[in-house]
Inverse folding.
């Protein structure tokens, strides 16, 4: 099934040239290690060719799976072999926005596939005749319960403390876990490498919220204070 704005790539990408959206359906595979690897290898080959070919520069590539993700509570992942394809294509989407789409169907009914493809969402799941897109939402703690905080009773080691995620962890430890935490050591580049400008900027950011990254300060030639 296809329409004027999308086409199946069952016979390869060349057969779908000129369509706004080209649909690829990862084939079923046994629930084995090789069964999971082959669909990912196939998907990688297709998406690499898609991104490298100027004929498809204005189009979108849609990977359509069935039961490959748990979109709603209680969902049964029946298409386990295609689940790694979602992981791969999500990474591709972060590097090439608006070029690749993921759609997961909940059965053999394709009637909502055109609506899903036309929705403009990078990831969609069809469940019970409805379209679902992932969204971030704030989750409030259950009534009568405080938000969980780590029990800190000593030195906290933040590995990768100069990376974006490490800086967020450092910020969380200081602002949420213990506002008086004296030291947050960090592991900087190996081999005695001097910190780059990016490292210095991130150290400054962490210090701004009260985190002293003792290991980083030592590499910068700064004596870590005993107290903040």
């Amino acid at each position: 099934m296809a329409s004027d704005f999308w086409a199946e790539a069952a016979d390869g990408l060349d057969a779908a040239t000129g369509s706004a959206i080209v649909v690829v359906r990862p084939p079923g595979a046994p629930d084995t290690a090789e069964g999971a690897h082959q669909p990912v290898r196939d998907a990688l080959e297709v998406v690499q060719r898609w991104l490298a070919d100027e004929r498809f520069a204005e189009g979108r590539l849609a990977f359509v799976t069935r039961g490959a993700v748990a979109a709603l509570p209680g969902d049964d992942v029946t298409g386990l072999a295609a689940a790694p394809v979602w992981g791969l294509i999500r990474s591709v989407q972060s590097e090439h926005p608006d070029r690749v789409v993921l759609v997961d169907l909940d059965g053999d009914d394709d009637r909502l596939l055109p609506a899903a493809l036309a929705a403009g969402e990078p990831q969609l799941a069809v469940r019970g005749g409805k379209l679902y897109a992932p969204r971030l939402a704030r989750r409030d703690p259950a009534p009568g319960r405080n938000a969980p905080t780590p029990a800190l009773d000593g030195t906290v080691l933040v590995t990768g403390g100069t990376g974006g995620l490490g800086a967020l962890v450092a910020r969380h430890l200081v602002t949420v876990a213990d506002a008086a935490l004296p030291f947050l050591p960090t592991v900087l580049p190996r081999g005695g490498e001097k910190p780059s400008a990016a490292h210095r900027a991130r150290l400054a950011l962490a210090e701004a919220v009260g985190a002293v990254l003792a290991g980083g300060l030592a590499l910068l030639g700064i004596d870590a204070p005993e107290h903040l």
